[in-house]
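Why this split exists: single-chain examples teach little about how molecules sit against one another. For that reason, every record in the complexes split bundles all components of an assembly together and asks for one structure covering all of them. Below is a record exactly as it appears in the raw files.
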Amino acid sequence: MTSRLIFRVLMALVAFAVLARIPVGFDVGFKFDAGLAVIWAFALLSLVLLTGYVGQISLCQATFAGIGAYTAGMMSATFHVDYIVAVAAGVAAAFVLGLLVGLPALRLHGITLAIVTLGIALVFDRYVFQDHAFEWLTGGTGGWRVGQTSMFGLQMDSSKHLMGAYVVLLALFCVVALLMVNLHESGAGRRFRAIRDSELAAATMGVNLTRYKLLAFGMSAAIAGMGGAFYPLVAGSVSPQPFWLFTSLQFAAIAVLMGVRYVPAAALGGAFMAFVPDVLTRYGHGTLFGRPYEISYDWFQIAVGVLLIVQLITLPDGVWGDLRQRVLHMRSAVGGLGGRKVKVA
Amino acid sequence: MTMLRVRDMTVRFGGIVALDGVSLDLNRGEILGLIGPNGAGKTTLFNCISGVIAPDKGTIFFEGHSLVYAPPHVRARFGIARTFQNLQLWGSMTVAENLVVPMDALGRRNTFSDALHLPFSSYAERASMERARAILHVLDLDRYAGTLAGDLPAGIQRRVEIARALAMRPRLLLLDEPAAGLDAQETARLAELLHAVRERFHVSMLLVDHDMSLVMRVCDYVYVLDFGKLLARGQPAAIRSDPKVIAAYLGEESKKLEGEVATVVPTRPQQAPLLEVKQLAAGYGGLEVVRDIDLAVRPGEVVACIGANGAGKTTTLRAISGMIHPRRGRVMFGGRDVTGTSAERIAQLGLIHIPEGRGLFPNLSVEDTLRLVSNTAGHDVNITPAFELFPKLRQRRRQLVGTLSGGEQQMVALGRAILSEPRLVMIDEMSQGLAPTVVRQLFDIIRVFREQGIAVLLVEQFVESALDVADRAYVFEHGSIRLSGPAVELRADRKLVAGSYLGTAVDATAVAAANGNGNGHHVDPALMEIVSVRVPAKVKRALEQRAEVEGRPTGAVAIELLEKVDHQ
């Protein structure tokens, strides 16, 4: 057990070291994409907990991220607090909203729960993020500008010091991802999975459904909110557009595409969501065999749809889940050839 | 000393009274049986005690605590554990993990310390795992500790459910049909297991089961429910011979035995059978529910299949109509081999199956439901014959099927069957949940069917009524046919049939033991478990073939091969 834990910590450290170096040589655009990738990865990680572990459906994860973003932006722009305090406030706000959204989940299941969360996403999209009544939170039509701020006392500037924000964000992601992996194998994780496999059995075997479902929604929202809280720092400002209804749907689709039960799939999905559209808009036009062509952002949406259909048929456990399964299979097959005795009984 | 005290429990679902003022006392250390025919309210009472549904009236006290407002997990803390009839293991976890969850859930541990892997969490984790292994050892489940629970055959899953319940250190164990789907020998072993569990874990038990051989063998005291009311209670031996209980299971003894025998059309053995089933075996997943079924229905004949719940009657019908694939054996219909043919093709040949629960669409109107027939037959059908048969349906032609009463729904199902001009209609539990007057009416319709030359294969819980209308009958017990013969004879010997319902405990095991040596399926259950869990189906089939060629039990062949592998 402990050796597994040490292995995981090492993996997280290696992943952090490698990923932190990658964007260094690239231009600001890609650096921004890298930051965005981690933010989206947080949102997908929140779905790993909520859907992958506990089996609850949510179509309002972008709303949680948005609440995190707006709260952090407000704290930073209005009260000029250290940005890490702003992040903490954003996480707390998302956690509270998550608990509230969790309340209907105590009674609802499956498709009805999906519709309710979709409704919540719609309400926040239209009547909170874009409404005058909530200008104190959203900063009006222009949103909050977080040009210059400090984190841990260090200067942060979205236009110049993007890497600083990216490294902090990535470090946090690695820590949270590690905790999620640990949680899966632990007692609490098992209680979560028990709710997913059979709620009825979980309740009669002593699992407090109310507590664990609310906790799952709260924690999930907090994780999405943590990513969102960094959005103002990475982008320099907040607007409702990245946190609208459609982003929530996209999160759900990408989470399923990559493998909703696996933590690394969240990182993969985040990178996919942030880089592929940008790469398409940059290099998606030119001439091929003397004929001009153009691949616009729309193609990304179509590609996601097609990939999702292909994946559900060929890789039902998600891209990461099934590839992992195949690698494990191959390893055990190779091991078997190495003369290890195969135990049958 | 009373441990569980249930008083005046009443539960209504809509207009139906599922439980009507039932009281029950369970003493410490006792194994209490709860029996009754289908729909008697056993499971409802059970769900009230474990907190899954809330009663409309009544009180439950467990060791001095009132349970009325306690949610399920609080009851679990008090020491009430349960198993489920439709297995509810956590399939994506290993067997050992399944046992650890309830232990951890009862010990208060923190989600965050778990995620951080604090030493205190991992210590508790190891301690739980040790206990889980100890319990698995006692129940002889050690070798499955690392297997995913969802991959196990149903028989083993049932044992894991008991192990999981015991992991909670319960004081009261609620067992919901633990013998469902087990054959006679497995049931006997389960009975031993339950006795051992009581000795070693010091638990009291409340047992709901249809399998009387288990209840009679295990229970100290038995409560009998019927139509939501307490019908009788007493020692198992007294219950078995109680005429009220026998009547509840078999229906009222009909008085008109002499008078109407003449109306029964004499059997026509000279005619070739319309439906012929030979050596049929079928099941679900890891479970083989029926085996060695030989059965025949001649044109225009009414045949009844009777027997206790879980004896394999429904599975047999499903295998015949193509709803599930038979594992072995052949099904011939109208001289054609239809084994493994798709259900809709078989229906087109004129074999109509009305499943349990009637298989209707609740949101279609009566008329639309009947018109659907024309689609399956391929040409338009005049629906008036159905209305002539059931004039009541004509009045209700525009009503949605879902809003009809149970009896009227059954009329729609029968009407739909007759419109497709069948040669054989199979009806599963036609009278389930219906009032006696309605049931009588429906049985009259069966007579009409016979007059029109349509053969009928009935699965029925009201044995007396079924034998009244049938020409011949088959009595199912533990997945095979125990008796068959003309209905008149079976009716005359009431004790013979009652035995297969209320348990002829000694005979049942003797029969199973005798069978066991013959067909090689029950040779060594432990070995068969190994073979069924660890070995892919292809290998298993090869093993069975080899065993057949060499004329030895499969278990012995498997052992020999395993030894060979170990040597290499």
